[in-house]
Amino acid sequence: MTAFYDQTGRTWKWKKNIAQRQVDERERRQQQINYSEIIRNAVNWLKVQEYVEKGVKPVIAVRETGVSRTQYWKMRKEYERKSEK
């Protein structure tokens, strides 16, 4: 607990759990950041499959869906093998 004067400076007040509130706020912000990162890094696999079937360049697929180049190429090679059979 910490004590402080209020804005007028006349009365002495006690502020409870300032440190705990700061810790909670920090954790909440970190959770929001983590959640937004997960959302940003989520890959739209249906769109990736569409691009694989169309034969879209990997640069475009990576930019629009968030898939990695190697994963895209693996899917594309697999699709080409299936289409040959």
Question: Would you kindly provide a brief summary of this structure?
Answer:
By secondary structure, this protein is mostly helical. It has helices at 18-41, 45-54, 58-65, 69-84; strands at residues 2-5, 12-15.
Portion in helices: 55-70%
Task: Characterize the biggest β-sheet.
Answer: 2 strands, antiparallel
Q: Any idea what the radius of gyration is? A: 26 Å
Give the overall shape, derived from the CA principal axes.
rod-shaped
Find the structural class using helix and strand composition.
Answer: mainly alpha
Query: How many distinct beta strands?
Result: 2
Low-confidence stretches: none
| Arithmetic mean pLDDT | 81
For the record, the count of structural domains works out to 2
* Terminus-to-terminus distance: 74 Å
- SSE string: EEHHHH
Order of strands in the sheet with the most strands? 1-2
Put simply, the count of helices is 4
How big a fraction of the residues is strand?
A: 5-15%
Structure description:
With 85 residues, the protein is mainly alpha-helical. The chain folds into two domains: 1-42; 43-85, no CATH class. It has four helices and two strands; from the N terminus they run E-E-H-H-H-H. It has helices at residues 18-41, 45-54, 58-65, 69-84, and strands spanning 2-5, 12-15. A two-stranded antiparallel ribbon has the order 1-2.
